[in-house]
Structure formats: structure tokens, C-alpha cells
Design goal:
This protein has 200 residues and is of the alpha+beta class. The protein has six helices and nine strands.
């Protein structure tokens, strides 16, 4: 990071470089959160994210955008752990490697080790808590070897409620954006969930 700190110092007045660099890095961190699909509270107290037109512009100008606004040649790290290795206990959205459907369906699953092979236990999306921004899921009788699946995105689904449902925190790891954009491809989802994302 020394290279980038020196670059920032060149554009300060030199009176309080530590404060200036901290503010600059903080702004970059917020920008990374926003363009990575993160959510924030707006002035009206609503949870919002980057609009579709902005996402399209960024994807169309990706290389220049990062060079000019995101610190030159730095490589974007996987700060949201989206690409972490699937091991026992990791929860994610998966798709089938061999699907006869033109629209490859998605499933919510949790990894477990079975005799040295990683298996994915499937969960059905049940309902939502709009105030808490969480989705409840329940375990169903389907399981697949990880070797038959593609990992689409890692999700936070580690809390179990009093009724035995697993809770997805849709505001973490960009899950809200991913699920809302691909809801129709999920094998199991409720009409309530569809209405919630369509309204949002």
C-alpha cells in the first residue's frame, strides 16, 4: 500500500496527511461498497442501492472507471468473500452444471462433508421479514454432490430461529441484489418474496 499512500500524500496540503489519507481511503471504501452491490440508508430512512442505469454505465466503462476513481492499478479484492472455497458449513446459492432447462435454476444450499465428499443440502425459501430484511428457509429432502453444482454466490445463512428455520441475511454479501435480480431462477420461492423484491 505504500505506493498508493504516497500518491494520496502528493495531493494533500501536508498539514494533516494522516487525516487526509484516512478520509480519502474511507471514501474509496464506501464507493467500493456501493458499486459492489451494497446497501445504505438514504436521507429518508430507506435502504437503497445502486440503480440499474448506474450499474450498466460502470460495466460499460469498467476499466477506465477503476483506474480513475478506484486507485489506479490496484486489484479489487474479494472483500465480501463471494469466492470463498465451499467447505462444511458454508451457505451459498448454487446452479446445476447439467441442466436441461434453458434457464438454469438456482437453489439455496448448505455444505456438509459426507464420507470425504462435499454434499449440498437444499433449502426452500419460505417467507420474509420485511422489517429485518431477512428470508426464512427450511431444509428439504434434496441433496446434491458439490461436483454437480456451480457456486453462484456465498450467502449469510447461519442463524436458526425458534421454529427451526434458517435465516438468510439479505443485506450481507450483496445477497439482496443477487436474489432480486435472479429470483425467477430459484427452484423454490414464495409469491410473498416475489412481491417484496418487485416492490423494492
Amino acid at each position: 500500500m505504500n505506493k498508493f499512500i504516497r500518491e494520496h500524500v502528493r495531493f494533500t496540503n501536508g498539514h494533516d496527511p494522516t487525516k487526509d489519507i484516512t478520509i480519502r481511503f474511507g471514501k474509496e471504501l464506501m464507493l467500493r461498497h456501493i458499486i459492489g452491490g451494497g446497501y445504505w440508508w438514504n436521507s429518508d430512512g430507506q435502504i437503497v442501492s445502486l440503480g440499474a442505469s448506474s450499474r450498466h454505465w460502470i460495466s460499460s466503462n469498467l476499466e477506465d472507471f477503476y483506474v480513475v476513481l478506484m486507485g489506479g492499478s490496484r486489484t479489487l479484492e474479494d472483500n465480501d468473500y463471494q469466492l470463498q472455497k465451499i467447505k462444511e458449513g458454508v451457505c451459498a446459492v448454487f446452479s446445476y452444471k447439467m441442466s436441461s432447462s434453458t434457464a438454469n435454476p438456482y437453489l439455496v444450499g448448505k455444505a456438509r462433508n459426507q464420507n470425504g465428499e462435499m454434499m449440498i443440502d437444499c433449502y426452500e425459501i419460505s417467507d420474509i421479514n420485511t422489517s429485518m430484511q431477512t428470508i426464512r428457509t427450511r431444509l428439504i429432502s434434496e441433496s446434491y454432490p458439490l461436483s454437480q453444482l456451480n457456486t453462484e454466490t456465498v450467502i449469510d445463512m447461519h442463524i436458526t430461529d425458534s421454529q427451526g428455520y434458517q435465516i438468510i441475511n439479505v443485506c450481507k454479501f450483496g445477497s439482496y441484489w443477487f436474489i432480486s435480480e435472479h429470483l425467477a431462477l430459484f427452484n423454490h420461492y414464495s409469491e410473498e418474496l416475489s412481491a417484496f423484491f418487485n416492490r423494492s
